[in-house]
Batch of 3 targets.
Target 1
Amino acid sequence: MFWNIYRKYILRSVRSKDMIGWTLLFPILLSTLFYFTLQSVEEDMTFHSIPTAVVKDQPMEAEVYLVQMLEEVSAGDEAMLDIFWVSEEKEADALLETGEVQGYISVEKNEPRLFVKENGIYQTILKNLLDRYIQIKDTIVTIAKKDPVTALKLSGMTAGINGETFDFEEEFIRDLNLTGRKPSATVTYYYALLAMICLYGGFHGLVVVENLQANLSPQGARNTLSPGSRWKLFCASYLGAVTVQFVCVAVSFFYMLLVLKVSFGTSIGAALGTILAGSMTGIAFGSVIALPSKWKGGLKSGVLVGISMLCCFFAGLMVDGISYAVEQNMPVLAMVNPAARIADAFYCLYYYDGYASYFKNIGILLGMTAVFGGICVMATRRVQYESI
Amino acid sequence: MIEVKNLVKRYGDVLALDHFNLDVADGEIFGLLGPNGSGKTTAINCMLSLLKYDKGEIRLFGEPMSPDNYKSKGKIGVVMQNVAVYNELTVEENIDYFCGLYVYDKRRRRELVKEAIAFAGLEDYRKFLPGKLSGGLLRRLNIACGIAHKPRLIFMDEPTVAVDPQSRNSILEGIRELNRQGATIIYTSHYMEEVEQLCTRIMIMDKGQAIACGTSDALKSMIRKRDAGSNDGQEAELTLNDVFLELTGRQLRD
């Protein structure tokens, strides 16, 4: 009986245009749209050296440390500034007017000054760079005036002014990148999208429960009248639903991996494990939504989509960084958000070297599945209805 | 086969079954007649343990009926008023699915599915999806799904609704055949002539109560006796329809 129900559920799902449309075609279409949208976003986010003119006249040459710092930040492949050294302010002005540079730096009365034509991200970076230089320089000068010995002890910091400003910052901030991959804002969108597809497995959950409840469908009545226990009926249909959902999400996953070249880390098996756990949670979640008999089918679908989208919003599907903000400010909400857990499990595989965080996420997903599944079984076993 | 004693079922303030009693013997084709809302379907759903009831006792095959009386459930077949099949499965797959809920042996099930298809006259439509079937064929599929596992007790709730005369005739002949094979059948319908032809005994229900029960002839003679005085001795040819209207009244029902 079990395998008959299981096989027929798969057959019904495969032939259901709605089901295939939502769980297979829609995600592929959406991920393709993501690809084109995020590609341009990524291009916009790529940092280019800021073309900047520096007036290297006498006052500038007197500011030895400033010149050294500017030379330092304009050297190498990943230089922050692309410097045009000019001898007069007029030349710098001309470059700024023609738009060849984003701004120019000169020194007047021993103070570095920045000239820009418009406001923007590059101009802000230039301003911050100069402010930082001035701040550190003033600090050292102040200390030197008051306590020359300490000023000498702070030679590291003094050295910072000598073109090592950014090393000074690295003393305090250090990036840990355990897999060697750069943190990426764009992959998180794909991970949240996969989380959304997993939660859309809830549509299967609606079907599974509808077919078990005599008060929800005539087929449910016929199944209820059979001599098999509800537990077996539920498990067989649920397993069929998980199989279909897993295959559909896996197709989307491989499409993202092989066609869209989205990085999922090196462990494909673990990524598929996330899909399996996510699908199980999504279907079990949908099964719980399907339980209230007074809710009509449309309302149930609406509630399912609404909650899924809300979960995905907080998992970072629409706004970058929101999942981090939720995790910092509302850790419990982040913990019980299945979409956040699915997306985070993918991110752990991408970014971290170990599996501790990954297994924590999978454990939470399986825990939620057990709770949702338990509610369903308890709510449907030995049920007699008030009315049909 | 079926014993129902003092069954009471309320939907809020509405009394759907009012101390309803029923006794059906093995091998009968028992007809349940009644206007809309008389309690026929409610009585059947209570007997099948789908509906909760407020009071009374139901025994099927000599045992109390409950949702987890799987032994009794395995011997029951149900043909619902609403067509209960899956639109994504073919005729054959639908019958196989519902038969599979009762019969786990694949080989045996294959035989039973084949027989059910032949019984319902669906041989030419085995690979058809339900959406491609006419109303009559769909009803026949609905019946095949309910009886494929060869149940001993079959509940048929208006199985011939919206079916053309040819299909209806075929369905009725099939029901007689099931009965000849040993099945006890509880049959509800609004078609009086159908019930009169088919059923060994008939119960007329109204307002949740059994108001008359017996063979077709017994019911007719009951009306004749009652009306003997007022008819001045003239005897008209009575039909079951006359009996029904006489007992349940001529006013329109919801």
Target 2
Amino acid sequence: MFKIMQYSFFDLMRSRWSYSYFGFFFLFTSALLWLSGDIAKVVISLLNVILILCPLIATMFGVMYYYNSREFTELLLAQPVKRIAIFWGQFLGLGFSLSLSLLLGIGIPFLAYGLLASMEIWHFSILLFNGVVLSFIFAGLSFLIALRYENRIRGFGLAILVWLFFAVLYDGFFLLLVMHFREYPLEKVALAATLLNPIDLSRILVLLQLDVSALMGYTGAVLQRFFGSGLGSILTLTSLVVWTTLPLLAIRWVAERKDF
Amino acid sequence: MITIQNLHKSFGRNQVLQGIDLTLQRQGAITAVLGPNGSGKTTLIKCLLGMVIPNEGQICFAGKPVAKQWEYRAQIDYLPQIARFPENLRVREIIRLLQQIRGPHTRDQELIALFGLSPYLDKPLGSLSGGTKQKVNLTLAFMYDSPIVILDEPTAGLDPVALIHLKDLLAREKARGKMILVTTHIMSLVEELADEIVFLLEGHIYFRGTIAELKEQCNEEDFERAIAGILTRPAQPIAAPEQVGPKPDKASLPFIPQPTTH
């Protein structure tokens, strides 16, 4: 698995897409830093970009990478290796290459601007950590969808729909639910609903650390009231770990039953 | 060495393999798996390699069932039908990857020289032509000295010189006692190299035997015409001891070859 991961990583790191992804974050972060001049504000600005863009790019990369390497995967499947080693290896290679583009794209401008001398290093680390976790979760989900659906158009469409659902539609449905049942106590429902969306979880994890309640929204406020920042952070972190693990297990389940 | 019993595979409503029984044990022989498009050749090969999971039936390798096993594949060299590799890796790296998966003892240098791949070793695989990719594919397939070689359309995209090299290579491997299984649409290659033919049609084995036997049964001097004869006048699937197919309506089958005993 490690070897396959290593080669998938090198293959992806040399692709134009990885350079573009790195380039975007590098330019965007540099522009924000030098225009605003306040590291704390830039961390919050970047939060929303990371919450939307990391899952989207990971989704697109995941589907594209699986379909592009389909024939090569067949060659690997004919080798004396376990099936799951191939797919987990490719998935991890994908996750790490996305993470490296993100870390370098955002990290270099921050370091150049003087992050180490500022008080924001913890918040900055939390932000990057969330970007990495979201990349892995959505790369896993899209890899799973591509593995499940041979038809590329259907696979691509469904993967984008999953991203759209979690990034945009989920909050809308959630608001409708809250409005419709506003007569009832909804705290626990809201809490459960938050745990079911990795993007919301990430947002809350960062905001709990940043302690900017104005940006937290309804679910974040509920979470903080229920658990306080410490326990809330542990709960969200655990949920994110579960979200990262689930696609891996599902990839295993599908891969072991699939015909290639 | 390889025993296939009552193999069934369907993809949705499409029944691709319908009860294949086949035993392959001849060392130093080339068996050509022939049949029209969609007859189940690739599916059969992929079942052997564990890439396609059969609905019914069993495949045994050296007496042991292969279901959910992977170690046995170290005994098989495989050339897939389509040569597509990670675009940004170099030829040298893909060879090294295979070596890291299967072990360092390979004869890659000999094959690189044979197919003239030296100038391409440091080029990204995405920049290679179809024929050159097929040469890389062949190098990867023959790199290990496994006792069984399975080739799915090995001639695709090869130039005449590379094709001659491939034929020589196959003849050498055969002489070294390997069991070679090949699917192809190039009948001249089959006529030149194959010791035995397995003809698949609609998921059944319709013929198994030598080229001479096929010509004799079809009453044709020309091999290609004999093959066309099976296609245009479908025969009853053969009923050799290890191969039992369904029994179609004899009235609709004017051509019924005699059972063979291979």
Target 3
Amino acid sequence: MFGGVDSDPFLYLAIALLVAFVVQGVLSYLSQRKSGSEQERPMQILVVVTCTNCGHSETTNFTEGMFVGRVVGSCPKCGGKLIVSKIFTQPIQQSLKTGPQR
Amino acid sequence: MVLLDNGVWDQIISLIFLVMFTLYFMTDLPQRVQIYRYSRLAASKLAMLESMVRESVSKIAGYLSKLGVENPQEIVSRFLDAYFVIQPVDIEPTDIIKRLGHLIESNERKFKNDVAKLLPNVGTHARNNVAASLAIASALNTVYKTLRHYYIVGRKYDNWLLLMQLSMILPQYLRELSPYVKAIDAFVKGIPIGDSVGPLVAFKLAGLSDRIEIVEDTVVSRVEIEGRTVYVVKAKGPGATVGRPGKAVAKLVEDLRCNVARIITVDAALKLEGEATGEVVEGTGAAIGDPGPEKIEIERAAVRCGVPLDAVIVKMSSEEAIKPMCREIAEAADRAYNLVLEIIRNRTKPGDNVIVVGVGNSVGVY
């Protein structure tokens, strides 16, 4: 390679440094792209409605106009008032648990 | 294959190193390159911040046009720069809290009146949501303009130290400010945010009992809990407002003629990195994160009447405090509620009057 300079350690050092700089540059670019493209997980907004009389509760999806304390209907078990007791978000991957809760 | 002989290669490499050495040590080229790099990095992050401001403005404009407002974009832009508070003179500290409180109240009133003029046919809660969203966009815009100022100064005077600091701090600012854009969605839709945990605990105590507006934007409910009369104070919901809990407590204590056994404040508090979100902790003092005027009202009322102050806090990060409430915080509200009940049971006796204040933004909480 390069005719007659194969044994020159100075040249090897220069080439090694050049390669190291290029590799470092590429890695730094890739890591910047990765951190820049990190997206937050999609979230869903859930609403817990609870019966003020028997404590029966259900979880549903949020619709505009809902707020904590809003009366949304009557309890299917005892006929008491069903009110929104919690509104919160969670990652969309987690399964939506509906039905009675403790 | 022989391309060049050994001696020529030596000469070329020596020349390259000589040029590199001269450029590196004898000129300011490395600094110029650094300035260029830092400047480009800062500029790209500033552009992202600018797009966040634009996004927040367009979100509010979209909401306003849904409410039937004409020229919403122009109106939002007008609100971005129009409201600021000049700090009171602090080299003369006498009555500084009163002066600060007066300035904050005057500014808030002016802001709300202008929003009311803008939306005459919209209900109070929706109006409060618009006001909170505009306040967020205005805060974002102020941060953006301040950082842009430092960037331009850095470029103007070739101040590489300033540009370097900016390029290093801007990614952190971007991360901390991006939840503010999401918070606008929460305010517009009326979804509780992390900071609403205090009013949520207050709601758990008061339920659907009557709310009496004791001071502006602040309500009190009276409930009986195991023989104690509990006065639950919170901001008036479900619109976005933090109310005036300090003034409400001061008035309540005065109305009850100091016949109060305990004042319990519940609020969101910033966690340290490494602490768990939703950790509920109890302490002493007034748990309220205002600039001072509201907190001092609670402290003064408590000292005047010799009432012990209990603080219950729910830990969360600054991002979680402004973003729509996550499950961990919603569940922590149950634990905070149980802790408040425990304090009432263990530290007061039947027949006592107890004041519980749910401090925070009441967006999405009645």
